[in-house]
Amino acid sequence: MRRNVIRGIVVGAALGAASFAVPTVATAAPVSEGNCARVSTPTSANGWGNTFSDERGQAGKVTETKVVDDDGSLGFTTTAETPRQASYHAAGKVPLADIANKPLTFEKTGGNANWQIRVTGADTGQSDGFATLVWSAPEGAGKADASTSNQWWATRDLPGITRGTNATLAQLIAAANTGGKKTVVDHYGISSQPNEKAGKVNVDNVSFNGCTTNFAATGAGGAFGSLESLVP
Question: Signal peptide: which range, if any (predicted)?
């Protein structure tokens, strides 16, 4: 993922969480194993999508492409005209510290796929404390687990960690919460932004804070449409 040209991450600080309208099913409770969008389909996104005003047209689509199971997956197709795609789910302000040492996994085909964890309240020097924590999975197909990686980075300077500098998630969490800050996760999701711009990747079984979402096209009446909601 190209750190110097990411759209919709750095600019998102000015927009904040208020610019995001959660599609279909929404809940104020923090996402967890018990409060979980277990299935997302083309006709019932179950909270997954992308309506950030600066990321219009970037949502992924549920397709029949097999990643692990036979019912489909969430696909991202990037081009020179649309070099980045991303889909998110509201996290219900889960404390960032709560996701430490928990699996952060997804299954993928070959290609670029990245964790996007959008937080507020972090010690960034800005009033909203907005930042996005990013991790890029290996290019090859398989199960990606970011929980213990030292290749995370943040889009904002944090105490002792300059933006774009590799660190563990635990280090970023500690830095974000410096000085008694209580950083929360507003949205989490997956993006694709390959260096070569044009690319394709499919992901499935996205697990965050104990909640695993299966993206399924089977049984959706053949309506393999975008997960993007109506833009206000």
Answer: 1-28
Q: What residues form DSSP beta bridges with 78?
A: 199
The per-residue DSSP string of 19-84 comes to: G----SS--SSPP-SSS---EE-SS--TTEE---GGGTT---EEES--SSSSS-EEEEEE-SSS--
Give the pair of three-digit tokens for residue 142: 């398989």
What pTM was computed for the model? 0.85
Other CB atoms within 10 Å distance of the CB of residue 135: 23
User: Counting beta carbons within 10 angstroms of the beta carbon of residue 81, is it exposed (0 to 12), middle (13 to 18) or buried (19 or more)?
Assistant: exposed
pLDDT digits (tens, 9 = 90+) for 132-189: 999 999 999 999 999 999 999 999 999 999 999 999 999 999 999 999 999 999 999 9
Which architecture does CATH list for 39-215? Sandwich (2.60)
- Residue 30's contacts (CB-CB under 8 Å, 6 or more residues apart) are 91, 92, 93, 94, 98, 209
How many C-beta neighbours within 10 Å does residue 35 have? 15
Measured CA to CA, the distance from residue 38 to residue 46 in angstroms comes to: 8
Integer Cα distance of 7 and 126 in angstroms: 19
